[in-house]
Design a protein that fits this description.
The protein has helices at about 45-55, 95-105, 110-125, 140-150, 170-185, 195-200, 220-225, 240-250, 270-275, 290-300, and strands at about 10-15, 20-30, 35-40, 60-65, 70, 80-85, 160, 190-195, 205-210, 215-220, 230-235, 255, 260-265, 280-285. The chain is an alpha/beta fold. It has 2 domains: about 10-220, P-loop containing nucleotide triphosphate hydrolases (Rossmann fold); about 230-290, ACT domain (Alpha-Beta Plaits, 2-Layer Sandwich). The structure holds adenosine-5'-diphosphate (ADP) and magnesium ion. The site of adenosine-5'-diphosphate has 10 residues, from helix 1.
Length: about 300
C-alpha cells in the first residue's frame, strides 16, 4: 500500500550496450500496491529496465532493490514475481490449457487450486472456449491474453508486464485494466510498459522514460500540472468582449478564440467562481490530455 517501502527502487541505475547508454543513471521509486505505467518511445529503455529488475542482465552501476531486497538476491523471490515479456514465451505445441497447467505446476499449485485458478484466469482473458487450441495457432491478441493468464497463475506480488495489451481489442483491454486495478487494491504492484498514452491515463502512477532516464513521473494529474496544462472552460457569451475584460480584471487567465472566451482553470473548483461572474449562453469543459503533457515535457527536456 502507499506509504510502505517501494516495490522497486532504482538509484542512478546505468546500463550500456557497447557505446550505447540505454539506462542513464535512472532513478525511480515504484510504490507498492499501485498500477504503475512506464511509458516511453521505442528504444527508451523500458524493456531493459524490466530485464534488470529480474536480473536477466547485470547493471553497470547504481542501486536497484526489488520487494525490499537488493537485485543481486532477486532469485530468492522469483515466486513472488510474474513477468510477461514482450516476446513469445509460451510453448507453441502445447494447448492453451496445457500451457497453463505447465505454469501452475512450475509454481507448485495443488490440484484443486490449479483447476480453480486456471478456470478463473481463462475466463478473465476470455479464452475458456479455446482451451484445446494450440498456443502456436492463436492470433496475436489471443496469444497475449494467454501469456497474461500464465503470468498471473501463481498470484504474484509484483507483476512486470511488458506491453501486455498489444493486439488486444479495446473491450478486453478494459477488462484487463479493471483486473490490474483490483490487484493493486489487494496490495499487489503492477508495473506495465506501454507506448499508448490512453492506457497511461488508467494507471495510478505514470513514469515517462526518455533516453534511459525518467523525464517525468507522478499521478496523471501531477504530470498534467508539471507540463503546465490546465482544464479549459469554454464560454459562449452574449457580450464576449465585456465579459472577457471583466474576467481578466478578476485575474483569470483567458484567451478569446473566434468569439469564444476560454478560461484556463487552476482547479475544477474555479468553475463555480467563474459562473458567479458571467452568465454564458453555453459552455464546455475541455480536459487536458496526458499525451499533450508528455509531448511538452519531451520538448522541454
Ligand atoms: N541485449 C542488447 N544488446 C544490444 N543492444 C540492446 C540490447 N537490449 C536492448 N538494446 C538496445 O537498447 C535500446 C533500448 O531498448 P529497450 O530497452 O528494448 O527499449 P524499449 O523497451 O523502451 O523499446 C535499444 O536501442 C536497443 O536496441
Ligand atoms: Mg520494449
Amino acid at each position: 500500500m502507499l506509504g510502505m517501502q517501494p516495490a522497486i527502487s532504482a538509484r542512478g541505475v546505468s546500463k550500456s550496450f557497447g557505446r550505447q547508454r540505454v539506462l542513464d543513471s535512472l532513478t525511480v521509486d515504484i510504490p507498492s500496491g499501485v498500477t504503475y505505467c512506464l511509458l516511453g518511445p521505442n528504444g527508451s529503455g523500458k524493456t531493459t529496465f524490466i530485464r534488470a529488475i529480474v536480473r536477466l542482465l547485470h547493471l553497470d552501476g547504481g542501486e536497484l532493490s526489488v520487494l525490499g531486497r537488493p537485485v543481486s538476491r532477486v532469485d530468492e523471490i522469483y515466486s513472488k514475481i510474474g513477468y510477461m515479456t514482450q516476446h513469445k514465451a509460451l510453448y507453441p505445441d502445447l494447448t492453451v490449457q496445457e500451457n497453463m497447467e505447465f505454469y501452475a505446476g512450475l509454481y507448485g499449485l495443488k490440484k484443486q487450486q490449479r483447476v480453480d485458478r486456471i478456470g478463473e484466469l481463462l475466463k478473465m482473458v476470455d479464452l475458456s472456449e479455446h482451451r484445446g487450441r494450440l498456443a502456436g495457432a492463436l492470433s496475436g491478441g489471443m496469444y497475449q491474453r494467454l501469456s497474461l493468464a500464465c503470468t498471473l497463475i501463481h498470484q504474484p506480488q509484483l507483476l512486470l508486464l511488458d506491453e501486455p495489451t498489444v493486439g488486444v481489442d479495446p473491450r478486453l483491454r478494459q477488462t484487463f485494466w479493471e483486473y490490474f486495478n483490483r490487484l493493486a487494491g489487494e496490495g499487489k504492484t503492477v508495473l506495465i510498459t506501454t507506448h499508448l498514452m490512453d492506457e497511461a491515463e488508467k494507471c495510478q502512477r505514470v513514469g515517462y522514460m526518455r533516453a534511459g532516464r525518467m523525464a517525468a513521473q507522478g499521478t496523471p494529474e501531477e504530470i498534467l500540472r508539471l507540463a503546465g496544462l490546465k482544464p479549459v472552460l469554454k464560454l459562449w457569451l452574449a457580450e464576449p468582449e465585456r465579459d472577457a475584460a471583466q474576467l481578466l480584471a478578476q485575474g483569470y487567465e483567458i484567451d478569446v478564440v473566434g468569439g469564444v472566451v476560454q478560461v484556463r482553470l487552476e482547479s475544477h473548483a474555479q468553475i463555480k467562481e467563474v459562473l458567479s461572474n458571467v452568465s454564458p449562453l453555453d459552455m464546455r469543459l475541455a480536459e487536458p490530455k496526458l499525451e499533450e503533457a508528455f509531448l511538452r515535457l519531451s520538448e522541454a527536456a
